[in-house]
Amino acid sequence: MNWDLITVSFVVGVLASAVRWAAPILYAALGEVFTERAGILNLGLEGIMLMGALSGFIGAYNSGSLWIGLLLAALVGMAMGLLMAFVSVTARANQVVAGLGITILGGGLSTLLFRLFFGLRTRPPTIKTFKVHSLPLLGDLPIVGEVLFEHNVMVYLVFILVGVAWVVLYRTRFGLALRAVGERPEAADTRGLNVTALRYISLMIGGAMAGLGGAYLPLADLGIFWTQMTAGRGFIAVAVVVFSRWDPVRALWGALVFGGAAALQTALQTLRAPIDSELLLMLPYIVTIIVLVGISRRAEFPGAFAVPYSRGEK
Amino acid sequence: MNIRKLLTGLVVLAVLMTALPAVAQEEVPKVKVALILPGRADDVSWNQASFEGMNAAVEALEGEIEVELTVVEQVYDPVDIEPALLDYAQQGYDLIVGHGFQFQEPIIKVAEDYPDVNFAIGTGFKMAPNVGVYDVKLEQGGYLMGLIAGYLTKSNIVGVVGGVDVSEIHRGHVAFVLGAQAINEDVKVLSNFVGDFNDLAGAKEAALSQIKAGADVLWQSGDGIGIAVLGACEEEGILCMGNVANQNEIAPENTLASFVYDWGPVYQQMIEETVEGTFGNKYYWIELANEGVSVIYNEELAEQYIDEELQAALDEAVEGFIEGTLDLGDLDAYKLE
How would you write the pLDDT of chain B (337 residues) with one tens digit per residue? Predict the structure, then answer.
């Protein structure tokens, strides 16, 4: 173990890395908070993120604008959410099966479309990513500045969206309606709320956010698209949502816990800690499981969680 | 009219009958080959090298052996491997190539039930009468890249990032450590594994972590994730080296050299032996001695960084590997953590 490599700069680097790990997961998790609050479990996040990554990349590559890429990623994610809504709300399919189907579809379709758009290449197509901007004043703070305020615009955007999501969920009529539909759809229905429409909207929000989360990888981090590049982040987002007990602010902490564990295991490998890399690579997932086991006792799932609704059925 | 038709028919038949044996004499043996890749054929790394090597082998055999080649990409998930193998074995393919360590167990299993089909495993150690292993002496590349990194580092810290700590990747990383230490006693060598060959973002974080720890020359042991490591070096403005394919163009200002694989001759040999019936139960190596691997330099950067002393050390090591005088010992036993 190389203890002497642990400097202030290294530790700050680990913390900043945790934020970068957390950002794409947090996008998807925030959307999934809305979806699950309305009573739907969407395990298709992984596939939607891949479609978001692909469409974001194609949009940015062809238009030269990263923002158009993001817009396209959100729209395609929304379309994937609509598909999930049709299958799970209208057709009332088992949501676990439907979600996994969406994940498989997104993985295969994004690969196929990438080949159709770009053909067989000897060198991958690339784009310029969002630049890192140090925020004025805040960025100059010692340690905290580099950890929190020296990132690309998509990191700042997701922090803002945490607040937006909280306000929408708890301080608007729409948020109240969404929560009612997830808790007691039959009661919401008798009060004149359109259960089907609200669940469709919740899945479109979830899809759009997952699309953005996927697009983070090529547009804000790497500058290239890669098959299966989300590498399980969509499923981590689902776990983060349970951890958060369906609250946007706690989702932020959940994403940071996972990001922190991922950054920590990377750092331990770098320092050549006397633990096998295979074991260290499990760390983020073990932390996720332990935290979930601890949390789930207290977790109160939405009353109608993962139960399709139909009028007049008990 | 009918008699005339009959006569012409007979004449045509007679001509055909005399012609047929002549055609048969010129007929070249036919072989059906399936190449199963775990990733995309255009990954500028592991899969692309295999894809290009196989196509080169097929081309080189033109006229001698007629190869009907099928390539399938993205058979990444271990649960998909066995069905793919069974599918091609049942379709009557003569040689099925699984390009990766993860193909070893499923191939050994399926090969038992299909003794008439030949199987090739891309890196591994298990064999059978109809199973051969082709592999790369990545330790040679790791050692050479280690020499370069150990010599050029100013901070005396260098690093290497790879997918998973197995097979040739392990040997490459260990040899990188040994190479760096051979030329620089004070050097610290960092090693990271990403655990996933598609997690480019994770690979980039690993590279950034090494750079934050002070590393100023990085190597990567290939696959898609390697491209992300080169990207991190470009962003941070440090030197790096590529692996598997010539990646010098991906970050042209930073990538000093690439350790390049050429699977062509090995694939060609495997196809020829399938026709002759001598395939199986052995290793097919690509190494410096048979020119299956080589170091390709980025000319502009090489001029700037590789001085006579480093060049001499590199030449000596290459010669040592070719002559067999440079022995790195048991690399599998060396622990990297």
Answer: 566 666 566 555 555 555 554 445 567 899 999 999 999 998 989 999 999 999 999 999 999 999 999 999 999 888 899 999 999 999 999 999 999 999 999 999 999 999 999 999 999 999 999 999 999 999 999 999 999 999 999 999 999 999 999 889 999 999 999 999 999 999 999 999 999 999 999 999 999 999 999 999 999 998 889 999 999 999 999 999 999 999 999 999 999 999 999 999 999 999 999 999 999 999 999 999 999 999 999 999 999 999 999 999 999 999 999 999 999 988 988 888 7
Cβ burial, residue B291 (10 Å; 0-12/13-18/19+): exposed
A158 contacts A33 by C-beta, under 8 angstroms: no
- From A115, A263, A281, residue closest to B205, measured CB to CB: A263
Contact (CB, 8 A) for A258 and A288 = yes
Please tell me what DSSP assigns to residue B18.
H
State whether B249 and A123 contact (CB < 8 Å): yes
Question: Tell me, what's the ipTM?
Answer: 0.94
| 3-state DSSP of chain A | CCHHHCCHHHHHHHHHHHHHHHHHHHHHHHHHHHHHHCCCCCCCHHHHHHHHHHHHHHHHHHHCCHHHHHHHHHHHHHHHHHHHHHHHHHCCCCHHHHHHHHHHHHHHHHHHHHHHHHCCCCCCCCCCCCCEEECCCHHHCCCHHHHHCEEEHHHHHHHHHHHHHHHHHHHCHHHHHHHHHHHCHHHHHHCCCCHHHHHHHHHHHHHHHHHHHHHHHHHHHHCCCCCCCCCCHHHHHHHHHHHCCCCHHHHHHHHHHHHHHHHHHHHHHHCCCCCCHHHHHHHHHHHHHHHHHHHHCCCCCCCCCCCCCCCCCC
CA distance A230 to chain B (A): 7
Buried b (16+ CB within 10 A) or exposed e, A50-89: bbbbbbbbbbbbeeeebeebbbbbbbbbbbbbebbbebbb
Residues of chain A positioned with their CB less than 8 A from the CB of B336: 272, 277
Q: First-to-last CA distance in chain B?
A: 90
Q: Which domains does chain B have, with CATH numbers?
A: 30-136+263-290 (3.40.50.2300), 138-260+307-323 (3.40.50.2300)
Residue A190 contacts B, CB cutoff 8 Å: no
Across the interface, do A276 and B74 touch by the CB < 8 Å criterion? no
Instruction: Write out residues in chain A with pLDDT < 70, as ranges.
Output: 312-314
Q: Is B193 buried (19+), middle (13-18) or exposed (0-12) by CB count in 10 A?
A: buried
B288 with B137: CB under 8 angstroms? Answer: yes
| CB-CB neighbors (< 8 A) of B164 in chain A | 278
